[in-house]
């Protein structure tokens, strides 16, 4: 692949068919693909089943699927906003003139108008009018599943990305813990007849000879469409369908605190400013769910299953670890503030601790994490961050910027980092030697494993040591064939879900987005060659009828990366736009020097010392050492050191100046 200087080259050689010219797979003719049966066949998943008699899927009729559980709630921000020092729970009044911006149950933003097949809401089709190639076929053929560790970044780097994701958006009507109540496929993997399927069904058709699913006769992967403004009683203002997101768009740790006063009340202690934690086996854990079999993949109602500000908390062990760390951090701060300011009431302690916790999290996200993804230079150039030293403010809040999460971001660009997921999770000792490991698909929605023995700390160290998977065209088998498998031999395929979701949301095409991002609009397949290798273009050509059909989530995932960043130019353009809006459109961003909402310069200078390493040191059960840059693998320049040598945020800067400080500050410096 030849690309203009400044771009990395992504190697995809293993994806190429063995020898010969290669023009299409002939699936529609029912001819088995040489390619699928050959190179893409994962070892251990041998396809020994005979070719089906009928190349078309068998369609069975089952009783009508139950209706969607509930219509989407209405966002009801106050008509007039008070200027408070603290964020509201639902994000309302962050924007003072448009109080409903960024609140739950509102539309995603969009950079480009949707491309629905019927112009209104039907999933995208080919420019020929035919259906696009099966999302599963595209997942198998255009993407690999090789295990390529990234020598630079740890699994916490991947995991923090999911934290930010869950803070910023959640598509309406979905579920990730239990089987979706709307069934578009039967339990034995057949398509539910279109005449009886629920109107939100958009099942993924599995191609014949699928290397995994054909072994068990699965022809259909369940897929339920995201609810839109047209499904809502209060959001629809005409025009094509816009999907709804059910969490606050702001980076406000809504996943920790909840997205409404109601959700928050359920997880808040109402004493000492603390959030509810429950003591089990001598440690403090997230409180238990009140609906274990609903919220987790639990067989036994006594299994550990968590309750948090976000229902996805239980989805995977690494996520539950960071949710726990962020929750414990809140209580650590609240306790320290209570010791420094004995006159603070519960509400003040709660809100001040929340404000500090969010500020540290925003700092880590923008200054420690995002530069890895977007490149530090690119961030400075696009004013996503500044070289703001000490306590100096960044006062560029802009009420003209819409902080909503872009559909192109949540449904395509940010999901590219699913490539970083690793299917094996190591358990490590304090000296970082491997004690054992877990297989991801055994532990989806089963967080109880964290509370067994020393697993919480061992997995936390594992995530700080193990490399994440390289950000490339490979998606780990654990999420490509075994996602949420629930004791079954196979599960779903996350890359297929990403592709199908792209069509469900009617995202503009890869070519449209290239043009929007200032790249050359392709007028032929060859024109993609500036960023995509000729071999991959040939693969795409065999799948899609036209170069105009290439889905955004597919094409942009196949681009060579921009130097210093973890994405190609098209995704980088979307991500850059999103994280600019998320910062500049947030009136409460921690670097803002507003007299009422902001911090003092002294406090801001402290907050800028926050780090991922310090968070992990302070909130493990008993973690005594960490490398200073926890998103980066351990190396000579990033060695594991005692926690005591990792900088701390000095909370004495939060002593209320109007009253006498207490004499003993030891609580703040007590830790290791
Ligand atoms: C083990 C780790 C992870 C698992 C199992 C996982 C799984 C999922 C699943 C099942 C969905 C919903 C798919 C659909 O029905 O459309 C989803 C959505 C998403 N994921 Fe992940 N994910 C993981 C990590 C990540 C990471 C590391 C990132 C980014 C850095 C990410 C970004 C996203 C985004 C942006 C969405 C859409 C959110 C929305 O607006 O609803 N995920 N993920
Ligand atoms: Ca949020």
From TrEMBL:
Class of enzymatic activity (EC top level): oxidoreductase
- InterPro entries noted in UniProt: Haem_peroxidase_animal, Haem_peroxidase_sf, Haem_peroxidase_sf_animal
The organism's place on the tree of life at top rank: Eukaryota
* UniProt keyword terms in alphabetical order: Heme, Iron, Metal-binding, Oxidoreductase, Peroxidase, Signal
UniProt cross-references to Pfam families, sorted A to Z: An_peroxidase
Q: Does the keyword Translocase apply?
A: no
Identify the EC number(s).
Answer: 1.11.1.7
Q: Which GO terms describe its molecular function?
A: heme binding; lactoperoxidase activity; metal ion binding
Q: Where does heme b bind?
A: 418
What are the GO cellular component annotations?
Answer: egg chorion
Q: Name one GO biological process term.
A: response to oxidative stress
The protein depicted here goes by the name: Uncharacterized protein
Q: Which organism is it from?
A: Drosophila mojavensis (Fruit fly)
């Amino acid at each position: 692949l030849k690309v203009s200087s400044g771009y990395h080259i992504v190697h995809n050689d293993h994806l190429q068919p063995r020898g010969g010219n290669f023009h299409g797979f002939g699936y529609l003719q029912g001819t088995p693909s040489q390619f699928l049966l050959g190179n893409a066949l994962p070892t251990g998943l041998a396809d020994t089943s005979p070719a089906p008699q009928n190349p078309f899927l068998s369609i069975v009729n089952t009783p009508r699927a139950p209706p969607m559980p509930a219509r989407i709630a209405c966002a009801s921000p106050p008509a007039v906003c008070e200027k408070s020092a603290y964020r509201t729970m639902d994000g309302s009044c962050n924007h003072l003139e448009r109080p409903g911006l960024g609140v739950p149950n509102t539309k995603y933003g969009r950079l480009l108008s949707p491309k629905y097949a019927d112009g209104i809401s039907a999933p995208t089709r080919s420019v020929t009018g035919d259906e696009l190639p099966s999302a599963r076929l595209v997942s198998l053929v255009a993407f690999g599943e090789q295990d390529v560790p990234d020598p630079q970044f740890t699994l916490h780097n991947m995991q923090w990305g999911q934290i930010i994701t869950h803070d910023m958006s959640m598509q309406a009507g979905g579920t990730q813990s239990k089987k979706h109540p709307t069934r578009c496929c039967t339990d034995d993997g057949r398509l539910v007849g279109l005449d009886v399927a629920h109107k939100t069904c958009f099942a993924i058709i599995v191609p014949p000879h699928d290397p995994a699913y054909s072994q068990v006769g699965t022809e259909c992967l369940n897929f339920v469409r995201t609810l839109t403004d047209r499904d809502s009683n209060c959001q629809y203002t005409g025009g094509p369908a816009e999907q709804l997101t059910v969490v606050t768009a702001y980076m406000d740790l809504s996943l920790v605190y909840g997205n409404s006063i109601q959700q928050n009340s359920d997880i808040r202690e109402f004493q000492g400013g603390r959030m509810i934690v429950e003591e089990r086996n001598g440690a403090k854990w997230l409180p238990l769910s009140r609906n274990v079999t609903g919220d987790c993949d639990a067989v036994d109602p006594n299994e550990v299953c968590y309750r948090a500000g976000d229902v996805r908390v239980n989805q995977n062990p690494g996520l539950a670890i960071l949710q726990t760390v962020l929750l414990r951090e809140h209580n650590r701060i609240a306790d320290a503030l209570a010791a420094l300011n004995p006159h603070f009431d519960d509400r003040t302690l709660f809100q001040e601790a929340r404000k500090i916790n969010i500020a540290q999290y925003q700092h880590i996200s923008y200054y420690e994490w995002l530069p890895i993804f977007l490149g530090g230079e690119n961030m400075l150039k696009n004013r996503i961050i500044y070289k703001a030293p000490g306590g100096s403010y960044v006062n560029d809040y802009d009420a003209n910027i819409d902080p909503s999460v872009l559909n192109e971001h949540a449904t395509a660009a940010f999901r590219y980092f699913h490539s970083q997921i690793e299917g094996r999770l190591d358990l490590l000792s304090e000296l970082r030697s491997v004690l054992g490991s877990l297989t991801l698909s055994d532990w989806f929605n089963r967080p109880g494993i964290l509370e067994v023995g020393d697993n919480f700390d061992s997995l936390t160290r594992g995530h700080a040591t193990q490399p994440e998977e390289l950000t490339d065209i490979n998606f780990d088998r654990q999420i490509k064939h075994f996602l949420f498998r629930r004791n079954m031999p196979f599960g779903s395929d996350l890359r297929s879900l990403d592709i199908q979701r792209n069509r469900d949301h009617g995202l503009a095409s890869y070519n449209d987005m290239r043009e929007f991002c200032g790249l050359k609009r392709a007028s032929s397949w060859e024109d993609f060659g500036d960023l995509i290798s000729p071999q991959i273009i040939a693969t795409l050509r065999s799948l899609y009828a036209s170069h105009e059909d290439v889905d955004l989530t597919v094409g942009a995932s196949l681009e060579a990366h921009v130097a210093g960043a973890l994405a190609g130019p098209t995704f980088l353009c979307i991500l850059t736009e999103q994280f600019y809006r998320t910062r500049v459109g947030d009136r409460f961003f921690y670097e803002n020097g507003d007299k009422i909402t902001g911090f003092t310069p002294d406090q801001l200078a402290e907050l800028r010392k926050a780090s991922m390493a310090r968070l992990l040191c302070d909130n493990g059960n008993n973690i005594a050492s960490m490398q200073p840059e926890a998103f980066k693998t351990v190396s000579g320049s990033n060695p594991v050191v005692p926690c005591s040598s990792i900088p701390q945020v000095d909370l004495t800067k939060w002593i209320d100046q109007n009253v006498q400080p207490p004499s003993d500050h030891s609580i703040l410096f007590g830790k290791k």
